[in-house]
Write a structure and sequence with these properties.
about 120 residues, globular
Length: about 120
């Protein structure tokens, strides 16, 4: 789990914050597109690029306030970004946001476990 500690840019430089934001924005955009395709069918990937930076900014800026506040604000911002980017009603946007959160958590857990597994491989 030392890898998780390396992802925390708190106390880092501006480059660490920008790099973390860009990686998170790309990851959130990919998972937003997966969620939107699952719920809505064929959608443009460009719309997901509008969604990704919102939860990425919330995640990076609010990391010091703990998971309860960060997750709540991030999910609400994600909901608003999905609703405006895809022009959905509030219920459908909520469904896409919940699926987006689920896909993001599954992808994050998978990546952390994969990195942890690769860290134990013999050299």
């Amino acid at each position: 789990m030392a890898f998780v500690a390396q992802l925390d840019p708190a106390g880092g430089t501006l480059v660490a914050y920008v790099g973390t934001f860009l990686i998170f924005a790309l990851g959130y955009s990919v998972t937003a597109h997966i969620a939107a395709r699952y719920v809505l069918g064929e959608v443009s990937a460009r719309r997901a690029l509008l969604v990704g930076p919102v939860p990425a900014a919330a995640s990076v800026l609010l990391q010091q306030y703990g998971p309860a506040i960060t997750i709540g604000v991030t999910m609400f911002g994600d909901y608003l970004a999905i609703r405006s980017a895809y022009r959905l009603n509030y219920r459908l946007a909520g469904l896409v946001a919940v699926i987006h959160y689920t896909v993001t958590v599954i992808a994050g857990i998978t990546l952390v476990n994969l990195v942890g597994l690769l860290g134990t491989a013999p050299t």
